[in-house]
């Protein structure tokens, strides 16, 4: 019977040192330290965030207007009996694209 088996530790023998509590708990990973220094934001950075916010708002408004314009185009160009079918297909495509975007940006894996 080997030394590792007599002590009850599989990875421990007479030559190596036993794992400490910290090493066995984090399994070799070291704790990452955060930088506690606060970075001061400049007026240029505030301006960039404001421009980004305004751009996102305009994009949101344009997307809503495009959605309702497409609904009107479907109603205008197609025969009345096909309008509900094409509207439902268009809404389904919008839902699939939105779910894909949410999957990309919200549920992405963090490295």
Q: What is the topological layout?
A:
Blueprint: H1 3-7, H2 21-26, H3 43-77, H4 83-105
Helix pairs in contact: 3-4
Transmembrane segments: 46-68, 88-107
Protein name: DUF8060 domain-containing protein
Organism: Methanolobus halotolerans
Give a description of the structure.
Keywords: Membrane, Transmembrane, Transmembrane helix. Residues 1-42 are annotated as: Disordered. InterPro entries: DUF8060. This is DUF8060 domain-containing protein. The chain crosses the membrane at residues 46-68, 88-107. By secondary structure, the protein is an all-alpha fold. It has a domain at 57-111. Helices cover 62% and strands 0% of the residues. The chain contains four helices and no strands. The protein has helices spanning 3-7, 21-26, 43-77, 83-105. It is elongated, with a radius of gyration of 30 Å. The mean pLDDT is 77.
| Assembly level | single chain
Give Rg in angstroms: 30 Å
Beta strands, count: 0
Question: Any idea what the shape is?
Answer: elongated
Proportion of β residues? Answer: under 5%
- State the secondary-structure class: mainly alpha
Unreliable spans: none
The amount of helix comes to: 55-70%
Order of helices and strands: HHHH
Number of helices: 4
Distance between the termini: 43 Å
């Amino acid at each position: 019977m080997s030394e590792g088996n007599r002590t009850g530790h599989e990875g421990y023998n007479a030559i190596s040192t036993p794992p400490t509590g910290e090493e066995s708990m984090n399994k070799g990973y070291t704790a990452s330290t955060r930088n506690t220094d606060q970075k001061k934001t400049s007026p240029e950075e505030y301006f960039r965030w404001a421009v980004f916010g305004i751009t996102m708002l305009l994009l949101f408004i344009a997307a809503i207007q495009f959605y309702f314009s497409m609904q009107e185009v479907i109603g205008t160009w197609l025969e009345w009996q096909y309008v509900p079918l094409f509207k439902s297909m268009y809404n389904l495509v919008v839902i699939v694209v939105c779910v894909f975007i949410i999957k990309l940006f919200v549920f992405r894996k963090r490295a």
